[in-house]
Specification:
single chain, 353 residues, alpha/beta, Rossmann fold, eight-stranded mixed β-sheet, five-stranded mixed β-sheet, 10 helices, globular, disordered N terminus, disordered C terminus
Length: 353
């Protein structure tokens, strides 16, 4: 099902501090040549580390069987939303559920027996997602994450959260709990009778505890204009969010597939974390944005808010710098250590992970 007409956006002039990723005409030409447009059945090798520029429903039958370890799906929610002149329109709840089922059932055969599936939604689409997916997969959990951006509502509660349903193909699946622990500040540190910190550590930058992950995520920062990962895509997911999912539910070398790739966050994070990836995206401009982001990974594999093997709470940049300072070798004479570490952790001095 085509969502509308293609449009190749050309960037407007922006300030030096605005890091939003855009494309020139020459870049569109360059990156569009890298895209895969399938015309026949595809092998796993054909798909490895590729972006498919096409409609998911039209190419799903070309995909091979049982090659996906982790399926991440961020479909259009059941609201009217413009995607670069393609418009997805709100429909009745039952019709939206049928739309989900129409393409979801085609993806079942591409999954390995021990694969994991994550599907994003908001409060209006969440129940339809659950109803459609539970016919094919085993529900394991529902993650709710705080989407802190957005205006307040005058006649309703401000909508600042989204859901991610976690399913698996079977009872045998990957979950690397030690790879997704959260480093949190300890407000009221407790010591035992000997004065030894209990379940926390004292650092130069404060007191911290390494905690197990829960299904409520309050440490996510939505991409905004001063972040190098930011694009013009209206529903772009943060790299930090994908890093949690990819680290938890896949291993190095596993295959991550995203059928609604958008501006490429899933592929970018998979590449940074040494996984194979493939994504499908109907819009050429978004495909090219994804290719540009993937090319940049060769120079910078950092993920904002994730360093030292743990995820940090929001607004802890100074603590991350201090922690990294104690682990880094002395800087070059022409670059202060704090600036060197801060640049590595965030890619920009104006970011607040």
């Amino acid at each position: 099902m085509k969502l509308g007409h293609d449009k190749k956006q050309i960037p407007a002039k922006k300030t030096n501090r605005n890091k939003t990723l855009t494309l020139t005409k020459l870049e569109i030409k360059k990156f569009s040549s890298r895209l895969l447009i399938p015309t026949a059945n595809l092998s796993v090798q054909d798909l490895e580390n590729k972006i498919i520029h096409d409609d998911l429903l039209e190419i799903s039958d070309y995909l091979p069987n049982q090659f996906v370890d982790l399926l991440f799906i961020d479909p259009p929610y059941n609201i009217t939303k413009n995607f670069n002149e393609r418009t997805f329109r709100e429909r009745k709840h039952e019709d939206y559920e049928s739309w989900l089922d129409n393409w979801l059932k085609k993806l079942v055969r591409i999954l390995k027996p021990n694969s994991s599936i994550y599907i994003c939604g908001d409060w209006k689409s969440s129940s339809a997602i659950f109803n459609a997916a539970r016919k094919y997969f085993i529900p394991q959990n529902r993650i709710t994450w705080e989407r802190e951006k957005g205006r307040g509502a005058k006649s309703n509660w401000k909508n600042c959260s989204e859901d991610i349903w976690f399913f698996t193909k079977s009872k045998n699946f990957t979950f690397n709990v030690d790879d997704v622990k959260l480093k949190r500040k300890v407000i009221a540190p407790y010591r035992d009778e000997k004065g030894t910190p209990k379940d926390w550590e004292k650092h130069e930058s404060g007191n911290f505890r390494i905690t197990h992950p829960s299904n409520v995520w309050t440490d996510i920062t939505i991409p905004f204009w001063s972040m190098p990962e930011n694009t013009a895509h209206p529903t772009q997911k943060p790299e930090k969010l994908l890093a949690k999912i990819i680290l938890a539910s896949s291993n190095k070398g596993d295959f991550v597939f995203d059928p609604f790739l958008g501006s490429g966050t899933t592929a970018v994070v998979a590449k940074k974390l040494e996984r194979k990836y493939c994504g499908v995206e109907i819009d050429e401009y978004y495909c090219c944005l994804a290719e540009k982001r993937l090319a940049a990974v060769d120079k910078d594999k950092s993920i904002q808010g994730y360093s030292g093997g743990v995820f940090w709470e929001r607004n802890t940049l100074s603590e991350q710098v201090s922690s990294a300072r104690s682990q880094k070798s002395p800087p070059k004479a022409d670059q202060p250590l704090a600036e060197k570490v801060k640049s590595k952790l965030t890619g920009d001095l104006f970011l607040f992970p």
